[in-house]
Amino acid sequence: MRSLFNIFNVAGSGMSAQSQRLNAVASNLANADSAASSTGEAYRAKQVVFESVPLDSGGAGVRVKEVKDDQSPFKKVFDPKHPLADKDGYVNMPNVNVVDEMVNMLSASRAYQNNVDTMNAAKAMLLKTLTLGS
């Protein structure tokens, strides 16, 4: 019975981690065309790093270890009339790859849904177990 409750902890940690991943993807997509961020330079894509974490009841869950800036180079766009253009007429644009972010969003939402389905299956098994005694 204890291991059945552990499923809720594992799936819950996965849902929390994937939720943070979805937030990072949303931020990346929202800033994909922003020439300047609050730091004054182009927006840097955010990448979520997960890590395994042992649970009190045994087993392991997952959590976000860190959300770090993608250090890949900015995209250079030639636009000499842009106010942020350099002396050669190029503007640094965010290093966000919209296609990669869409794939990341689909992957994160699928993983989130899988954890929801796991919790629902565990709940159904637990309810069925309770009816066995009646």
TrEMBL record:
Q: Which domain of life is it from?
A: Bacteria
Q: Which InterPro entries match?
A: Flag_bb_rod_N (IPR001444), Flagellar_basal_body_rod_CS (IPR019776), Flg_bb/hook_C_dom (IPR010930), FlgC (IPR006299)
Residue limits of the Flagellar basal body rod protein N-terminal domain?
Answer: 8-33
Which keywords does UniProt give here?
A: Bacterial flagellum, Cell projection, Cilium, Flagellum
Q: Where the protein is mainly located, per its record?
A: other
User: Record keywords: Signal included?
Assistant: no
Flagellar basal-body/hook protein C-terminal domain segment(s): 88-132
One Pfam family hit: Flg_bbr_C
- Compartmental location: Bacterial flagellum basal body
**Keyword flag Transport:** no
Family under the similarity heading: Belongs to the flagella basal body rod proteins family.
Q: How does it assemble?
A: The basal body constitutes a major portion of the flagellar organelle and consists of four rings (L,P,S, and M) mounted on a central rod. The rod consists of about 26 subunits of FlgG in the distal portion, and FlgB, FlgC and FlgF are thought to build up the proximal portion of the rod with about 6 subunits each.
In Swiss-Prot or TrEMBL terms, this protein is called: Flagellar basal-body rod protein FlgC
Q: What is the lineage of its organism?
A: Bacteria, Pseudomonadati, Pseudomonadota, Betaproteobacteria, Burkholderiales
Q: Which gene encodes it?
A: flgC
